[in-house]
Amino acid sequence: MAGTDRSLDSAALGGPAIILVRPQLGENIGTAARAMLNFGLTDLRLVSPRDGWPNVKAVNAASRATAVLDAVRLYDSTAEAVADLQHVYATTARSRFMLKPVATPRNAAGDMRRWMAAGELCGVLFGPERMGLHNDDVALADTVLSVPLNPAFASLNLAQAVLLVGYEWFQAEVPETDEDTLTPNRTPPATREKLEHFFSHLERELDACGFLHPPEKRPNMVRNIRNLFLRAKLHEQEVSTLHGIVSELVKGPEKDR
Predict the structure, then answer these.
(1) What pLDDT, on a 0 to 100 scale, did the predictor assign at position 173?
(2) Nearest to residue 16, comparing CAs of 132, 113, 99, 100?
């Protein structure tokens, strides 16, 4: 379909970050960028694209979605790409045996509208074309994003998945400004960077006391522990309190110091 109005180039831009994790084909990055701009999304982040960046095939496939491609941010890891975000969704059609809330793009779009109106940053993770997100990528998210599809054929290409999320974002109602919501009497939700710092602290001490053994079970144990705290949707002050708890437990009782 055609019908672009060039006089409206600056209209309705922004939205949640779209994070393509280890994308394989430049063409898929370009068509994803085109889908993003169709619905006013401009924050595109790439994690270790297979064919490098910039990519001429992506530019050719983007159909002049330059507002997206010119602002692309490149990262070496998924953790770095989500570090500044406070709410993260991971798209997957497969069970990962993780205890995480599951949302449809429609439900997620309403929540993201509300959070972003309150100044809280959101993002959606999309995995590589062949295999999707690794479990460690999914573990970085609060919520799994699952599109209701024919269970006998639930595979979407990258641009289609981005298009569906973008469409629901664009259709979701913008919440009315609520002073109590925008200036709550509490600290803001913790960013992934602050949570990662706490997780590293906790896991370091759990390694030291021998809790994360045997070694072959450590990855699943770490993911389960992280998922437990992510479900709590911790705020900055709560993360600071947890740091203090871990530090005091390591020190031991006052009489033993």
Answers:
(1) 84
(2) 113
State the fold for domain 186-256: Helicase, Ruva Protein; domain 3 (1.10.8)
Collapsing DSSP to helix, strand or coil, 95 comes out as coil
Residue 179 tokens, joined:
């002073």
Nearest-angstrom CA–CA distance, 37 and 170: 11
**Mean pLDDT calculated for residue range 175-196:** 73
Consecutive H or E run containing 106 = helix 105-117
161: phi then psi, degrees, rounded to nearest 5 = -65, -45
Helix (H) or strand (E) holding 19: strand 17-21
| 98: nearest Cα among 133, 48, 147, 46 | 133
**158, 124 Cβ separation under 8 angstroms:** no
DSSP-derived secondary structure for 229-245: HHHTT-BHHHHHHHHHH
**HSE-CB of 51 using CA atoms within 13 angstroms:** 14
DSSP for 136-175? Answer: HHHTT-SEEE-----TTS----HHHHHHHHHHHHHHSPPP
Of residues 8 and 13, which shows the higher confidence score?
Answer: 13
What is the C-alpha to C-alpha distance for residues 170 and 191, in angstroms, rounded to an integer? 25
C-alpha–C-alpha distance, residues 58 and 92, integer Å:
24
What are the residue ranges spanned by the domains of the chain?
A: 13-179, 186-256
The fold adopted by the segment(s) 13-179 is Alpha/beta knot (3.40.1280)
- 185 — pLDDT class (breaks 50, 70, 90): low
Longest dimension (CA), the chain: 75
pTM beyond cutoff 0.85: yes
